[in-house]
Amino acid sequence: MSPEITIGELADRSGVPHSALRFYESQGLIHSRRTAGNQRRYVRATLRRVAFIRAAHHLGIPLSQVGEVLALLPSDGAPTREFWERASHCWRAHLDSRIDRLERIRDRFTRCAGCGCLSFDGCALLD
Amino acid sequence: MSPEITIGELADRSGVPHSALRFYESQGLIHSRRTAGNQRRYVRATLRRVAFIRAAHHLGIPLSQVGEVLALLPSDGAPTREFWERASHCWRAHLDSRIDRLERIRDRFTRCAGCGCLSFDGCALLD
DNA sequence: CTGGGACCTCAACCGGGCTTGAGGTCAAGC
DNA sequence: GCTTGACCTCAAGCCCGGTTGAGGTCCCAG
């Protein structure tokens, strides 16, 4: 079991297609060494980075923000526990605010739909 | 006060830019008559249609779906009260399900962040 | 009748998060 | 040595909801 993995292995083990991995790399979220033949080789910690990226993505965090926080790690480093805790705290807040926003919209909508108005002067939905 | 309005008036009164109004028209969400000089003239009911579109948009409903429901009205018709009630019922459900989904993600995330795992076998976030 | 603001069309571009394809190279097994 | 599959780059395309710009026309007030 080599200490480095190819892009195919990374794709298989993370469930993320090659194309997306190359894209992440182009965005600076992950990094690779190149072999003499110009092929990518990843350290195994990259698996964790990819997991971190997918988890964030799943929460609706834009890649650019994920990049910002991953930039705080060494380029070949996996997220540590402390790192994960800080990020998750921040994302939890992000999720909460998205939920709040939707709930506020829903409540306003409920009042508005009740009145059936849909007019320009008076319908709270059309702010 | 003319029974018809220009695109500039529609833009001013609805708060939606010309470009977006032309785009809505290209998508079949609103309709216009053309003058001899090829300029658009809208019936006033179009203001309501635009309000309807913006309200839906605000709720996160894709334009294509808004188009589907607006297609049930005559091309120059404003949404009626009954129409609005049916649509709002449907959108309310849409909003509820989005909120549910986010809450489920949040709960799962909260459990996962608590364990700090971020591993591939066992982390619920990486399904 | 003229000036200028409102209007027209069509095409290109934006961001986000990739995918797809063309055309070429690398590496491992037989 | 040859085949085959995994890999490479770069460019273009997709979806969504528009915006921006170029180049041209309409129409109304003075």
Please explain how this structure is put together.
The structure is a homodimer of 127-residue chains. Chain A has 127 residues and is mainly α. Chain A folds into 2 domains: 79 residues, Orthogonal Bundle (Multidrug-efflux Transporter Regulator, Chain: A, Domain 2); 48 residues, no CATH class. Chain A has 5 helices and 3 strands. The first copy, chain A, has a 3-stranded antiparallel β-sheet with strand order 1-3-2. In chain A, a hairpin with a 5-residue loop joins strand 2 and strand 3. The longest helix of chain A is centred in the last third of the chain and has 35 residues. Chain A is elongated, with a radius of gyration of 21 Å. The N and C termini of chain A lie far apart (60 Å). The mean pLDDT of chain A is 87. At the A-B interface, helix 3 and helix 5 of A face helix 3 and helix 5 of B. The structure holds a DNA duplex (30 and 30 nucleotides).
Write down the secondary-structure element order of chain A: EHHEEHHH
Biggest beta sheet attributes of chain A: 3 strands, antiparallel
End-to-end gap of chain A: 60 Å
Q: What count of helical segments of chain A does DSSP give? A: 5
Q: What's the helical proportion of residues of chain A?
A: 55-70%
Lateral strand order in the biggest sheet of chain A: 1-3-2
Q: Based on the structure given, which CATH architecture of the largest domain in chain A is correct? A: Orthogonal Bundle
CATH level-1 class of the largest domain in chain A? Mainly Alpha
Descriptive key words:
homodimer, 127 residues, mainly alpha, Multidrug-efflux Transporter Regulator, Chain: A, Domain 2, 2 domains, three-stranded antiparallel β-sheet, DNA-binding
